[in-house]
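Researcher: Next entry in the queue.
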Amino acid sequence: MRKPVTVLLLMGLALLGGCKGGGATATPASTGELKSDEEKTLYAMGVMLGGNVQTMALTADQLAVLSRGLMDSASGKKPLVDPQSMAQQISEFARARAAVAASAERTKSEDYLAKAANESGATKLASGMIYQSLQPGTGDSPKPTDTVKVHYSGSLIDGTVFDSSVQRGQPVEFALNGVIPCWTEGLQKMKVGEKAKLICPSGIAYGDQGRPPKIPGGATLVFEVELLEIKK
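Model: Structure for this entry, 232 residues:
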């Protein structure tokens, strides 16, 4: 299970604090090409830390304060405040920011969901899921306790693919009662050999927490799924 963003942020701060005096020599420019493996590694560390706070939608001024804390910790300066004493405030700030971002994401999805429900062949279920068969199947339909083998691609409503067994060239197997509710419900409507589109509002996907950095909180997810086999 993914750790909460506040935990990851604190881990990142601790990591940088532990690196003080480590003798790293790479000093890449703020813009331009990354020339060495060390620069690429350091940049990747920055991307990971940045991804953990991306959903907070910080302003430029807030990012500057955050960067100051990172730089002070990494350079060994005495912190202006004790991070451990601020743990509760950090957690509350992160939750509040995540809630605002998730609400905005849900609002952004409303038009998409309304249009998708009106597409030819689409059915909106009581759960909010929109189901659309893309290719009929001829086999059995799975039960909630079955294990299935599928190929799938998952994307955000803007078309950004966040996961795809098709791209990896390797189908996946999972217990139908061990995945997000949208999949548990949607796969039971499919027959072996069928391809379908499952459009999943956040409430039956990953909720307000999301799966940062690829899936923001409150995100509606779009899956194209092919049911290959029901494992016996």
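Model: The chain has six helices and seven strands.
Researcher: Noted, moving on.
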